[in-house]
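Dissemination and training. As part of the outreach component of the grant, students in the summer workshop were shown how a complex can be specified as a set of sequence lines and then modelled as a single object. The example used during the hands-on session is reproduced here so that future cohorts can follow it. Participants entered these lines:
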Amino acid sequence: MSTFAGIPKHVEDVLQSVGTTSRRSLLKSAGLLVVSLAAGTGPITTRANAQTSAVAGPYPDIDFHQVDSWIVIHEDNSATFYVGKTDCGQGTGTSFRQIMSDELDVAYDKTTCIMGSTDITVDQGGSGGSTAMERDSWPMRRVAAEARRVLLQMGSQRLGVPVDQLAVSEGVITVKGDPTRTVTYGQLIGGKRFNVALTGADINATTGVAPVKPVQELKNVGLSPQRYDIPPKVDGSLKWAVDMKLPGMVHARNVKPPVAGAKLVSIDESSVRGMPGFVKVVSKGNYVAVVCEREEQAINAAKMLKVNWEKPSAAPFPSSENLFHYIRDAKPTSSLKPIVVGDPETAFADAAKVIEADYDIPYQGHTAFSGAHALADPSNGLMTIYSNDMKSYGMRRGVAEFLGIPREKVRVVWMEGPQGFGRTAAEDAGCEAAYLAKEIGRPVRVQWMRSEETAWDTKAPAYAVTVKGALDAAGNLVALDYNARAADYNHVGYNEADTVLIAQLMGIRRAKPAEGNAAVPSEMYAIPHRRMEAHVVSLPMVWETPLRTGNLRDPNGEQSTFASESFIDELAAAAKADPMEFRMKMLTAGSDDDSVFRRARSIAVLKAAADAYGWDHRPSPKPRGAGEILTGRGMAYAFRGQTIVAEIAEVEVNVRTGRVWVKRLVCAQDCGLVVNPRSTRHTAECAMLHALSRALHEEVQFDNERVTSVDWISHPTLTHADVPEQIDVVLVNGDPHPNRPDLRPFGAGEAACKPMLPAVANAIYDATGVRLRRVPFRAPRVLAALKTAKV
Amino acid sequence: MSLTLTVNGKSHTVDVDPSTPLLYILRNDLGLQGPRFGCGLGQCGACTVIVNGVATRSCITPGSAVKGDITTLEGIAKGGKLHPLQQAWIDEQVPQCGFCQNGQIMTAKALLDKNPKPSDAQIREGMNRTLCRCMSYYRVQAAIKLAVKVMAAQDAAAEKEVVA
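and obtained this result:
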């Protein structure tokens, strides 16, 4: 069926023999081979045997200062790239192959990419922050360029011709002017080590001496080869982390506290002891799990286990209905130093018109498509975790610390899983499986059930934002006052041994909880006077709560941008200006720019979005139509890091039912150099729809002791019926020197999430004249707002 | 207790409690990977298999309740050739993470088996309870439309051959 059918090779190797993978064997045995290189100019050294240094276990950190840790060339002239990344479905593995095969000059089709398993790949941190191309492709490129340089030197020796008289294409070195004289990479080094040292203060700075190629010489970059991971995903042959099985493995399910902050009083183990397949109840502090031989037995036993809990004396949090009152009244736990530009006080005092608005964004969950899961194997006093953790290296450190064993005895084998989006970097199941496996002495697979995942996963913080703006008599925005409060205190990190949920439930507390973040808008508007404040507030209960915050795709960006770009639209309406022109005027008003030309690129992106949509220049709202369906269009813009995005939504609002259907979406995005245009467009498309789901449906609901939105009925998500009729993604290169040979790639994973919420709200306003300032825009809320406004 | 199930044309006898959801039998006893656990509540579609032509949520279907042939994602390719839906999924580069795609493909197959030429509205309606959290929906719908065209062309070609 597919050429990549079956178990990933590195996983198969792991299965065959604990502690000895073919990759490791290659490194070990090849270490004894001293490849003689008379290359001359580079810092080429030989290394006798990488395995001889004293370490506490068989899984030392992979040395990123060796070409061999990144690239292996095989005798058949194919190459395997080992990178410290994971692919959460955006096709980054394919893009790494494109960019590395370009620098190395091997055929794309003869490359493979191994990602994320901690004992065979360098630690680039896994995935996160849309850094795959922007940051992590650079060491890959430089190492591949260095490998090419070394191979050309070896070729020069072999062919007896100076390097400058050699050409290389698809792994074949040819003497210029004499095509009969060739040698392949495979013939030069196939199956052997490079033994070439690299330099660089950290992994991101890893480099050899060879320069990377100018963009114009990259052949695979800019093409859209199909993602190699898709065929085995559609024929059922790919082995995912959920598919991993080991001899003698058992299954575990957690029993969570019934209300937040409940204390375990007692467990009646007799309630499950006679059940089929029962192995053990494992409990420490308020952490409880049931282990059985079969999966369905563990599910049943976890349901049947009788546990006595004591409710906390005080309510752990306000109900979701009262959340925004609570946030606005709470004393901040920390505050950003106010950002002040010009003299906002005087500007407000002198303004022709001042408007002000409050925006509320609830907690929104990751609600991954399947619950957190991991399989841990404690064989031989070591710990192997099979996991879809997008930051597998962090999980390895976290598990080692949590269990109190050297990290050289722990490895994480990364396999694919549902989404990423931040939850799988702080995903709990790895530490749980490892703890249970250590207790039981057998491989243990644990998985969270739907209600557990939806209630207890990490959440994006709720925001309450107040924005005030001053217009002069000509309708120009002269002053802006932005004040945000985010319920983000004790923001959970990535598999930290003292914040992962099992540690919290066991009573482990770090001395100082993470401060959390509150974001200010990210745009390039020239507004003469500004004041921006952002504060973090805490809920009453900080630990052992299902309302624990963590990074969710474009952390904080969607919340702050909803407030800021909705408000810009309100200002445009107050100035009776076209919302696109109102923004464009503020972008073109400035003459300065930053080092990555974000102002110039913002202007290019807005223009591209308007052109792609066919923007009709007029103020909002449009004259109200007759009939049941009202239509309108709205836009919003933001940057995320160095990436600029403008989006336009066209909506239909049903005034009888309150249902909002986004009929058309346009996204213009400038993320610099695009490695794989098709993957990039699809990623933007899905990011927009993920944000659309947050705009229309998603909200964590809770009473004052537990989360009540626990499945796909009580926590709705976008469905096929919501999907726009047409989606256009335009990739823009708005650099003032678009053909620069050093054009850089910027993050493309999350930026397109950012402007979607306000684009939809602005379109609803355009259609109906009703401003929605509270997310999500579920039909009953929209209907109520329309009725209040007598639409 | 033992149960006998016919899966992808082969008969299997497994020793399980008859109330065991079909999903766990397929995954843990028969080693199939297509059907997945997503919610265990029949709400998301990740576990979808086809039983007697009907898209069935195996996570809420007891093994003992299955009367008839079961087809999983692994069983829809014929003679080493991917099903047109699977090929369309590759051609349209549908998945992001891909975890839900078993449900998308199997639900689409059951839909097209009943209605080979669905309208856009019928596709939306027929697929509506099959969820994707990466939001690959737009591509899923495009791939279904592509598969409909390819299958219609194949049928027309086959008919022509018969006539000739």
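The two ends of chain A are 56 Å apart (CA to CA). Students were then asked to discuss how this feature might be tested experimentally.
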